[in-house]
Amino acid sequence: MTTPVLSIRNLTKHYGSGSSRFDALKGVTLDIADGESIAIVGKSGSGKSTLMHILAMLDAPSSGELIVDGTDASKLKGSRLNALRNRTFGFVFQQFFLTPNTTVLDNVMLPLKIARIPSRERTKRAMAALEKLELAEKSSSKAVDLSGGQKQRVVIARALVNNPRIIFADEPTGNLDSATGAVVEDLLFELNRTQGITLVIVTHDEDLAARASRRIYLKDGLVIDEPAVGARHTREVGA
Amino acid sequence: MRAVDIVATAIGNSFRSRLRTTLTVIAIFIGAFTLTLTNGLGAGVNNYIDSQIASIGAPDVMNVTKPVVATAETEGPQPYEESGSTEVSSGVGPPGSTVQAMTDDDLDTIRAIDGVRTAAPIVSVRPDYIEYGTEGKFQLTVSPLSAGIRVELAAGTMFDTASSNLQIILPTTFIETLGFTGNDDAVGKTVTIAVTNALGEQTTVDAVVVGVQEPTLFGATPSLNEPLTSTLYDAQNVGIPTGTSSQYGSATVTFAADATEAEVAALKADLVTAGYAGTTVTDQIGTFQSVIDGIILVLNAFAVIALLAAGFGIINTLLMSVQERTREIGLMKAMGMSGGRIFALFSTEAVFIGFLGSTIGAGVAMLVGGIISQVLADGLLADLAGLQILTFTPGAIVTVLLLVMGIAFIAAVLPASRAARQSPIDSLRYE
Ligand SMILES: Nc1ncnc2c1ncn2[C@@H]1O[C@H](COP(=O)(O)OP(=O)(O)O)[C@@H](O)[C@H]1O
Ligand SMILES: [Mg+2]
């Protein structure tokens, strides 16, 4: 087997200290291979988002190690870290984080702007990404004027515009009705299949998790084995 | 992000919350407007004084007096001087200040000082009236300062120095009153001046008007040429015992026209050692100028206080902006934007707000100032020809713009570094 793109060993994360100390992750070990699609599944508060943020290097672990492409993440700082975030990762969050009063095109171009790509080139690439998501004709609309499903497609366009190796999706369908949610799911898995982009999906939705090539179950900050079949009926509670 | 993108994004961001930006811009506007006007006032007045200095000839002339020796309060009175300790009103300096009268001996002492070319007493002539034709008699004051001053002429010529004819230059304000139809009409005409001598007899002297002068900062008094002054002085001193008439309030000293500032200073020092005080015309105007500079400085200080208040407005605006855009900042950081560039983004926004406020402020100030200046020049200040009370120099305007943008940048440091330090994840966490 080739070296995993992301690899964590005995990872812990706690918030606060003293009596208010809360252990969100209590020692997680995990390898994510290049090109796979992996679902991190668990109830609300189980530590899924915390784990994803550490994987995406948006947050630092309290202890344990994270290895990105064979490099110890704790040694990545400053411009190398920024370049990694900019070029290697794409993000899709449950909330869209679109800048409401700017155009769809501007929103999609943001990562390219940060990457210092010249104006003409970034327009071309952003339009190409929007076309892929069938949103080309909305490119000059304000983000605020779009429907929920359209917004999430804009977010996906933004996530893939800089050709990332890994897309992190935190509850990508949480804000969508099931029909639009399904469209977004299809899009993400298609990117994984056709472009080989590694997909890390955080969800409490068993149906979504079932479509991933692998599932990791989290409970109270620990990885557990696949829960019993009955767990599927408690899904609504978890939401 | 590239620099152009940062600037474009910052400008776009400042327009996103239009009301808040507008209010901050207004605050800066007020400061920049005031500062531009006060600077313009300073420049206008000083320019005018400079042009007045330039119009004053005789840079080689100094007014010399013999100051009363200062007595410190703890000391007793100074010993009586046998020869000429009479105090006379100095005519220059603050009202009531007195100097000791100078005698011909003093003049000889002064002539002996190195660098002094000539020393002549300034005699004070007190004519009774001036008259032309049948319009009546009018009071006439001759200011001692008008000796040695070159004036801006509205008509006619300067005195003919070679001529021993009795000549006078009248200010424009005298022309109609005396009964001339215009400035040009007055030139070449003969006016009559009367003086009363010590015996109480009035005698008249005729003089030819050679020129008409624009009024200056030193007022609107006629200038007499040397022969006319001496003629009037002689007529006035008829009947005075000789001992008294040779006492003078001050003397005019000439020195080399190409004397450097250091040489002039050395000459002044020598005069002081000998017990005299010398002031050039430039000195007198310089004092005036430093008073004006002082006033402008105080006015500027008020404007800068207004700008500092506006600076806090900028801090507040940006803090709110950072607060509002917490998630956007987090997202940009998550996408690999460096803290330095986030800082640049917010500080550019502040500098842009400062730029807007200051250009509008300076622009409006120039517009309003230009109008005020014109109205005053045609009205209230019409007598002071050439005075543009508000003068805007490119240098001063650029200084105001840079100062305001500098203040805006400093104001941005706190909010912008707060934004730059934000961890992406704290910003992205949602409730
Ligand atoms: N910044 C924080 N400070 C304190 N506690 C936190 C913080 N972030 C998350 N937590 C806690 O850590 C636990 C895991 O949170 P999270 O990873 O968001 O869970 P999930 O995404 O699975 O719902 C939760 O109990 C949450 O309250
Ligand atoms: Mg979560």
From TrEMBL, chain A:
It holds the Pfam family ABC_tran. InterPro entries: AAA+_ATPase (IPR003593), ABC_transporter-like_ATP-bd (IPR003439), ABC_transporter-like_CS (IPR017871), ABC_transpr_LolD-like (IPR015854), MacB-like_ATP-bd (IPR017911), P-loop_NTPase (IPR027417). Keywords: ATP-binding, Nucleotide-binding, Transport. One of its GO terms (cellular component) is membrane protein complex. Gene3D superfamilies: P-loop containing nucleotide triphosphate hydrolases. Residues 6-239 form the ABC transporter domain. CDD domains: ABC_MJ0796_LolCDE_FtsE (cd03255). One of its GO terms (molecular function) is transmembrane transporter activity. This is Putative ABC transport system ATP-binding protein.
Automatic annotation (TrEMBL), chain B:
One of its GO terms (molecular function) is transmembrane transporter activity. The chain crosses the membrane at residues 21-42, 295-322, 343-372, 392-414. The keyword Membrane applies. It is a multi-pass membrane protein. Belongs to the ABC-4 integral membrane protein family. GO terms for cellular component: plasma membrane. Residues 73-101 are annotated as: Disordered. Residues 21-265 form the MacB-like periplasmic core domain. Residues 81-99 have a biased composition (Low complexity). It comes from the Bacteria. Residues 301-424 form the ABC3 transporter permease C-terminal domain. This is Putative ABC transport system permease protein. It is found in: Cell membrane. Keywords: Cell membrane, Membrane, Transmembrane, Transmembrane helix. InterPro entries: ABC3_permease_C, MacB_PCD, Macrolide_Exporter_MacB. It comes from Salinibacterium xinjiangense. The keyword Magnesium does not apply.
